[in-house]
Design a protein that fits this description.
mainly alpha; two-stranded antiparallel ribbon; 8 helices; about 60% helix
C-alpha cells in the first residue's frame, strides 16, 4: 500500500469524492478529445487494472494460506486479518521447522546483537537485522496495527500492555514497536507449536 503519511485511507477516499463533486461544478480547461484527457484515461485504466490484479493475487494468496496448518492459529491473534496472516505464512514458510524461538527470531533478524566494550559485554544490544527483512517489516507493521486497534477496542491486549510498559521505560516509539515485533513472533511461535488459538 502507498504511504498514507499516517492518515487513514478513508481520509483520501473522502478527498477523492470531494474532488469529483467539485469537478462536476467546474468547466473543463481542455476539450474532451484533448491528449491530456486521453492520457488521464489511460492512467486511470492502468490503475484499475493493477488494482484488480493486486486483489486477485491477494485472494489467491489467502486461499493458499488457508490450506496450511497454522493459518487459523495466526489469524486468531487480535488485529491480524486474513491477508496479514497469509503474508506471515508466506515469509516464515513452515514454522514447525524451527526447533526453538531463538532460531525463528534470528531468521527474522530480531535477535539482539552482543555489544562488547573492553571488559563490558552487553547481550541486549540493538537487533541484528541479519534475517528476512520482509518478515521483519511485516511483523513491525502488524505490531503497529495491533497496538493502534487495541488502543481503541482492546486495551487489555497483551501486546498493547507490553507496548505501554516499554513506553514507560522511556524507549523511543520505534524501539517500542521493535520490541513488540519480537513479542509478536514469540506469540505466533507459541500458538503454532501448541496448535492453539489466541483468546
Amino acid at each position: 500500500m502507498a504511504n498514507t503519511n499516517g492518515r487513514h485511507i478513508n481520509y483520501y477516499k473522502r478527498k477523492a469524492i470531494k474532488i469529483k463533486d467539485l469537478a462536476k461544478l467546474s468547466f473543463p480547461g481542455v476539450p474532451k478529445d484533448s491528449n491530456n484527457v486521453q492520457n488521464l484515461q489511460q492512467i486511470v485504466d492502468i490503475i484499475i487494472s493493477i488494482t484488480n490484479e493486486k486483489l486477485s493475487v491477494e485472494s489467491n494468496l489467502i486461499a493458499l494460506a488457508k490450506q496450511t496448518a497454522f493459518f487459523d492459529n495466526i489469524v486468531s491473534i487480535f488485529g491480524i486479518g486474513d491477508l496479514s496472516a497469509s503474508l506471515i505464512i508466506a515469509e516464515l514458510k513452515d514454522i514447525s521447522r524451527f526447533s526453538n524461538i531463538k532460531q525463528l527470531t534470528a531468521f527474522c533478524g530480531l535477535d539482539p546483537t552482543i555489544v562488547q566494550s573492553g571488559k563490558s559485554i552487553n547481550f541486549h544490544g540493538p537487533i541484528s537485522k541479519r534475517g528476512n527483512k520482509y518478515a521483519r517489516r511485516l511483523l513491525f507493521n502488524c505490531s503497529r496495527n495491533i497496538i493502534s486497534l487495541s488502543a481503541k477496542l482492546n486495551r487489555d491486549n497483551p501486546l498493547f500492555l507490553y507496548y505501554l510498559k516499554k513506553k514507560q521505560e522511556g524507549k523511543h516509539y520505534y524501539a517500542c514497536l521493535t520490541a513488540c515485533s519480537t513479542k509478536l513472533i514469540r506469540i505466533i511461535f507459541a500458538l503454532c507449536k501448541d496448535n492453539s488459538n489466541a483468546l
